[in-house]
Amino acid sequence: MSDIEKKSIDPATIEMIEKAHIDGCETIFDRADVMKPCPIGAEGSCCKHCYMGPCRVPAPKKKEGALEKIRRIGLCGATAETISARNFARMVAAGTAAHCDHARGVAKVFLATAKGEVPEFQIKDEQKLYQVAMDFGIEIGDRPIREIAIDIGERALAEFGRQEGELIFLKRAPLKRQEIWRNLGVAPRGIDREVVELLHRTCMGVDQDYQDLLISAARCALADGWGGSMISTELQDILFGNPVPILGQVNLGVLKKDEVNVVVHGHEPLLPEIMVGVLNDPDIQQAVQSVGAKGINLAGMCCSANEILMRHGIPVAGNFLQQELAIVTGVVDAMVVDIQCEMQSLAQVAKCYHTKLITTSPKAKIEGAIHIEFEEREAQKVAKKILMEAIENFSNRKTNVEIPSHVADMVVGFSHETINYLLGGFFRASYRPLNDNIINGRIRGIAGVVGCNNARTTHDDPNLTLIKELIKNDVIVLTTGCAAITSGKAGLLTPEAAKLYAGDGLASVCEAVGLPPVLHMGACVDNSRILMAATAVVKDGGLGDDISDLPAAGAALEWMHEKAIAIGHYFVASGVFTVFGTVWPTTGSEPVSRFLFEELENSLKGKWGFEPDPRKAAKLMIEHIDKKRKALGIDRARERVLFDMAKRRELDAA
Ligand code: NFS
Ligand code: SF4
Known about the structure:
This protein is an alpha/beta fold. The protein folds into 4 domains: 11-59, no CATH class; 80-240, Substrate Binding Domain Of Dnak, Chain:A, Domain 2 (Up-down Bundle), CATH 1.20.1270.30; 252-396, Rossmann fold, CATH 3.40.50.2030; 413-632, 3-Layer(aba) Sandwich (Rossmann fold). α25 links the parallel β15 and β16. 58% of the residues are buried.
């Protein structure tokens, strides 16, 4: 394998890394060669929680003496276990804060919309509005939609500042799960409260019991999955429409040489939604013509991409590690970013070309970028202003233009409600057919494969290898975030992929209902959809009475963000075996790792796993799925199915 092939398995990515070299433009792929991770920080053994430190307590190398062991405490006496668990918990708090602050923004716009203060936004999905109203215990009767929506907005916002009781959406979980949370004292009270409390607990001299720290981190993470993230998914669906299957295209090849290209990158769907709406505005179209462009091409990057892809079929330029490379094509006239996962280096890369980097969130400015703040009350005006900046920039393109030809088709937009309809039909929407096919063994189990790219491993490779291995073994895959984009690029998000890549059992089910073997469920906040899908499967019956009983597992092999740790921890705390790859942040403390990998299962019935090799990770997940099938007494059914298939082949051959 050449050096460049170690960087990515995506041909479009490799092409652009090479172009960047020719253009003399540095990217993250170059920096990853030069700067290696700090070995002490990488294992979670560095504490900076007070300035008597930073204290470093690296794991002892083999054959070290007693003296070395004594040094494994910080100045204040904090043990390696405390330090490791505190670092882990802080990641959970930060990740939860990111998802939930995004959710707060959505809730505020939702309430303003309900009050009629932002005419640009409307309530699009009334059915979902009623559903959420019922979950929130809001009276429906014959009240006008507007009033119900105001109540929902207020109640959603109150979840952030709630001081006592528990988050409302916890009641959506299977009853047994709720019991587990309450008995263990991890049912989150208020969203902000859990984040603040975890930051407090992890300060110098507070909670210094690693098990207690990791359990309280679960409480905070649950405030993300069943709190902030779920609120943001639900309210975004009501405002912009619950996603339904839609065709889209993905990879850098979606950029167009003779059109103005605007890439929206980040996480909030608010501004991109409005941009989609004003693309055909006469002023915009006229401006496009006047600069000699053939049109204006809006494309997405990362989770912003997933949001507008699912609802409007807007093409996706790429995932996290492709953000700089989109600019390297030389045809991106504006890259518009809001919050999260935007690399600061975009500003430098933009300088190598003609691209205008435009920041839009008051929370996320970047030195060297143009700042045009998104104000929802002036949403259209801002959207048009940004598009005009891009159009004006079209004529500034330099000569070093090259767009990779790679582009793939995909079908996306599988909200958990849509899966319901697709399986059961609109009038008898139900997960029954899924459950039946799991019970009869055609589908072996369910896996959620989600999360980022990480420049410390070959871009797209671990996730893709894992997903292919899972579907080959009849495990249906639900995917979100950057992993979903990886799947799209590789052609796995099409119904035809079932025949090509899935095992006989899964393929037969996919072909019967026209489903891809890998279902794109949205952005990272939409991992809450996976929780809801898992809950729906439990509630439909026949597969135990808790999420932890399901033949299911989760993974994020290329994770890098703190948000991923928050997601992983709420999956674990919801009863899911969750495997991460590439690196593991608590390797510095064996007891902490053991607690997460094994002991947590005693109380939360879910646990973490770490396995950088994607084939081995698939094996771990499938073994777990088979163990659950056995516990449910449905392992025999699967043996029969396999036998049937073999028999059928024999007959075919005869
Ligand atoms: Ni999720 Fe989406 Fe991608 Fe990772 Fe970043 S874009 S919120 S954090 S890198 S999957
Ligand atoms: Fe060192 Fe303790 Fe301060 Fe951490 S909190 S830096 S271990 S003295």
